[in-house]
What does this fold into?
Amino acid sequence: MSTIFSYAGVLVGFISQFFIFPNYFEKEQIGLLNVLLSYMYVMVQISTLGFNAAGSRFFVHFRDAKRGHKGFLFMGLSIACVGFLLCSIGVFFLKDSMIESKGKTDLLAANFYFLLPITFATVLFNMFDNYAKNLYETVTGTFLSQFVQRFLIMISLFLVVFNILDFSQYIWVWVLAVSLYVVPMIWKATRLEGFSLKPDFSVMTPEFTKEFAIYSGLTILTGFSSMIILYIDKIMLAEITTLEETGIYSTAAFFGSVMGMSLIALNKASAPIIVDSFAKNDLKNIATIYRKSCTTSLIVGCWIFLGIYLNIDNLFVFLPEGYEEGKWVIIILSLGKLFDLATGLNGTILTLSKYYRYDTYIMVGLIILTVFLNWLLIPIYGINGAAFALAIATIYYNVARYAILWWKLGMQPFTIDIPKVLVVMLLSGLAISLLPVTDGSKFKTVIDMSYRSVGITLLYGTIIYWSNISPELNGAMRNLWKTVVGFGRR
It folds into this structure.
């Protein structure tokens, strides 16, 4: 269900990011909104002070519905509020250095403080979503963040499309659309068994507090590094080039994020199970989850990659002039994301294991490498340089995590199924690429995209299904088919 909501959100996001934004907003305006979001996600990670990661790992010590889960939410919200306050003070003093760069000072400066409300709303959302996830309620958070938020943003865009608002007015509505999803998340959390905001420090013995604090401190850096790899490219592009270039890059980069949706949903669903398995020392179950995550994620990712790659020229027909510069950004980031998907839940497993310190060391290297690569490549290759930097950094941290898990836990998830999936992808892509191209009007382009997409789905999906590479995915496909058939008979 989480995956369905994720891809429903992808469809909504695709309409917004690839059709409405480029055709009704200036490139600089798109760049501004993406830079604000990039700063926001980095601030969110710092504001939580590592509590969400530590809370997930040690939730087994808090879990007690009759006692309100021993003050878990009170402590988390208190830490998050203090962290947000400190982060906001830091941003206030660093504002000038954050907005000083050619081509963007006025636009970013005029809208800079919109960063604070969207950050606070996201901090709260993540806190309550993390609480729900630890209680095995993963669907609501995914539904709200991957679908509802994007749907609200899409609806708000029509206020500009129909000339009801100009951009200076629209950004107020955009802030509301980005933030509003926190309200139903809080409501859902209050409905879960054991909800309480009462303080209870009984679990916080000196020994446990020390362990919790050390883990939190290390994961601040780990989480910050994760945000760096996801958002530093847009921040540094805006610093080194212009908001216009950032707008083009952000539009193209959307496709890389689309490919990662299945892994995000899988991570949310698997993390509590992995925590419990470590608590029981059931490494065999974790190894099984690890192996299945690699295969399943890669299968879904290859299908999406084929859809993107074989339709890439058609997509730019619907965009204004200048966006075609992002073609190689899409290809480079998509290939990097394929590597990420092929390595599955390595980061989640390592972070939740007793060897989590190694992930911190990996992430320190990631920060240095990512900033250096962007600094080196953006001035030379522009937006393609930012894409290369992200793809290389993605390969680095996945190889490092894979090596640590194999060395310390003896977990090696790759089987013959991985090359099988890649061969199926290549053969399916080659076959569909031989189909005749329908050139001409935008209507003919839609027809061309439609039959290529259907062809990819039928050919690739059929081979994957009958080869039984992923029994779990086959089961999901059968259940989906039964649901569709059952709905059609009503």
About this structure: The first helix runs from residue 2 to 24. The radius of gyration is 23 Å. The chain is about 80% helix and 0% strand.
